[in-house]
Amino acid sequence: MRAKISYAVTAAVLVVYFVLAGSRGVLLIKAGTPLTVTFGVAVLILPVIGIWFLWKNTAFVRDANRLAALLDAEGGLPVDELERLPSGRVDRDSADAVFARRKAETEDAPDDWRNWFRLAVAYHDARDTPRARKAMQRAITLHRTSL
Hints:
Blueprint: H1 2-31, H2 34-74, H3 92-108, H4 113-125, H5 129-146
Helix pairs in contact: 1-2, 2-5, 3-4, 4-5
């Protein structure tokens, strides 16, 4: 729940920032000189890119949470079986062992979104966020095509 609140607050702050930046861009364009119009357009591009990025990221999180709820309802969510260091961080060898198992499961059934979801969790546990995101995106795509 704390993560959802943090995400909502961050998104709200970004939207306020986008509105403020956009209004400055409009003011620069209204000034009417070639230089201010150029800067105004450049300033307006940043909020557009930011809104697009925020939209795509929010859709990704929503879809990943939907898959997690489906997998939970099926009883297929991965169990946290990782060993932890005294600091609370995941033991690297433990994460590697779980990752190897999840990768083998995914290679055995590459068209099952459930395996890709669990592989994404294993990548995340191994602190490989880019691959975790790609694996989760693959799970989302496979789930969409299976409907």
